[in-house]
Structures are given as C-alpha cells and as structure tokens.
Amino acid sequence: MRLSSFLAPLALLASAQLANAANCGGNFDTFINNMKGEAISRGHAPATVDAFFASARQDPAVIKADRAQGVFQKNFVDFSRSVISQNRMQNGAANAQRFGAVFDRIEATYGISRGVLLAFWALETDYGQVQGTFNTRNALVTLAHDCRRPELFQPQVFAAISLFERGDFDPDTTQGAWAGEIGMVQMLPEDILVNGVDGDGDGHVTLKTSAPDALMSGAKVLSSLGWRAGEPWLQEITVPQNLDWTKTGLNHQMSVSQWQAAGVQARGGSLGNGGLPASVLLPMGRHGPAFLAYPNFRVYFEWNQSFVYVTTAAYFATRLSGAPVYDAGTPDAGLGPQQMVALQQKLQARGHDVGGVDGILGEKTREAVQAEQARLGLPADAWPTSALLSAL
C-alpha cells in the first residue's frame, strides 16, 4: 500500500501554496515548452532542462490511477488483518536486526522508534520489494499538466530537475509510484531535496536501493512534521463500559492521568507519562478495539490522510515494537458503502462537514456521527450503525 493510494502530502504542504508555473491543460508540447522556460528562469541550465524533458511524454495510466483512487471502504479490523501478515512481521524483525546500526542512529538523532519506520517501510513498498513501475518524470509532468492539482505537481517537476542536476535522478530510468513518489518509503522529489539524508555515506541520496538513505530520510520527514522524540504514539487500552463516549475521538483530549481516573487502563504494561495529552480512539466503536492516541499519532496524518491507513500503520508499529495482537472485541455491524453515502448525505443536510460524500468513514464523518449520536441519545462512540442511519 503506497502513499500514492491516497496522495497524502509530505512536503506538499509548502508546494501547494506556490503559484502555477505554467497553465495546466491545453497542448502538451506547449505546456512542456512553458515548463522549460520556467525551469530556465529558476536558474537551471538550458542544456540540463533540455536533457530532462527530452523524452517526456504523457502517461494515460497515471491519469487513470489518479481518477480511480480514494474509495477506501475497509474497516480497521479488516484492513489491518489484510496488510499485517506473518511474513511482514518476520521480515520486519529480520530488517530490524540487519539495519540495527541505522535504527540506533535514527533513535539517537530523531527519537523515533524503529517500529515506526519499519511499519512505513512494510506498508509502502514491502520493505523495498514493490516500489512502482511508473516512469517518475512522466508521472510528474502528466499530473503537472492535468488541471486537477497542478499546484501540487508542477513544483515537483522542478524539484526532480534539481535532483537530476546533482546526479540523484535519471529522467529516463527512474521509476516509482504513479503519483511520483520514489524509493523504499515513497518520497516525492521536493521531500528528497529538503529531507533526503545520505545514510550510507556514499555522497548521494538513493532511496530506491539504499535502505540507510531511505530510513534516515523517512525519519527526518517525520521529525520535520513534528514527531516528539522518545514519546509513544499509540497504545492498546481497555475501557470501562460506563465511559463518557462523548469524550472519545481525536477531536477530544485529556491527560493520561485523567483517562486513568476515568477507568482507562493499558491492556498490557503501563500507560505513558500521566501529563501527556491523549485521545481515546475507538476505530470500530465502543465494542471494538480501543487505543490511546498520543500527540505523535497526529503526525501520521501529515504522512497519510486515511484514518484507517494511519491507525493501521501506527498499530503495526506497536506490533513491530513488541505489542501483542489487539483484542478485536465484538463490534456492532457497520454500514455498507451505499449506506455510508446515505449517512453522509443526511449528516451534510444537517449542516455537518463530512469531508465529502465519498462513502469513506474518515475523521470528519466520525465527528459528525458522534455529534448526532449525542443529540439522539445514542452511545456517542463515533461508530455509525444502521440504528443511527434509521434515526436520522
């Protein structure tokens, strides 16, 4: 599962604010000529620019992949069980040992647990085995020309030219995901420029073939996004059935000591520092798995914006760090795709921002569900059921 499945921005947060360098759409050759002119005006040598764009072409498969993305219907239990395999656990342990010195450097430099990076590495590219077969230059120019999000992708083309200049990008042979991410942890060119780390000391940042480069770079990205060194990110808990459900969810926080006073306990071991702020996360409602989400959990949403992907990645990181398999509990039956669309339409009609009527139970839809559950006197655990749909 690559980041391109959801096109979650890493350093795109800054790129998205840049003005378009060239008008999107229209004749592709004209567009490329405009991009060349802009690249030269930014200080790139004309010969370098010509070499970079020499065989650039549109890739219809990229547009097809872009239009097909975004419909993510699996719930947390189904998705996590489908992607966290015994093979990935075993390979994670093997890679933790093989690159132990690299992970020691990451923990000393950035305060990020090896489990966190291992989980991303596994979910993004199966530890580097599945990095994508799209020509990266063509993917980027295709999406830069397309008028859906040119402000996101045009800056990535110029970043790729900079990588080409320093010998870290071959426009004809570099391959990756359909949305232009490269390497073992799937980073966009601008991220590589800003956060790329030469982890193996060879003078280049090579994310496709060098695990030390990829892991150190991924750690620097997380650190730049606000990772709090040495702190936990997610922990499985048990919750009392008389908990005030209106206080659960990522939109509510209390200190760990306050949650303890409310009856929340660690399923194994002890909870984090009592003064840390945390949220009780119930991915499938009060009868399903339960977690305490610490501040570092929110950093995951800067890497990827899918609630289920983020929760799975964070949980996977705890597994790779020694945590047991979660207690799945007996969640109430959820809604099917068409029911979810109907629910979102009803919530939207009541004035809630659900983040778009897409059939996906994201964080905004969860918040709206919780508000309506509270209004209707239902347990406000943010897990939509047919009872809620009927009541609306």
UniProtKB/TrEMBL annotation:
Phosphoprotein keyword on record: no
One BP term from GO: peptidoglycan catabolic process
Domain named Transglycosylase SLT: residues: 28-317
Signal peptide as annotated in the record: 1-21
One Pfam assignment: SLT_2
Molecular function (Gene Ontology), one example: peptidoglycan lytic transglycosylase activity
InterPro entries the UniProt entry points to: Lysozyme-like_dom_sf, MltB-like, MltB_2, Peptidoglycan-bd-like, PGBD-like_sf, PGBDSf, SLT_2
Ranges where the Peptidoglycan binding-like domain occurs: 339-392
Keywords recorded for this protein, A-Z: Lyase, Signal
Top EC group: lyase
Keyword Nucleotidyltransferase: no
Catalytic activity, EC: 4.2.2.-
PANTHER family per the UniProt record, alphabetical: LYTIC MUREIN TRANSGLYCOSYLASE, MEMBRANE-BOUND LYTIC MUREIN TRANSGLYCOSYLASE B
NCBIfam families in the record: MltB_2
Protein name in the entry: Membrane-bound lytic murein transglycosylase B
Top-level taxonomy: Bacteria, Pseudomonadati, Pseudomonadota, Alphaproteobacteria, Rhodobacterales
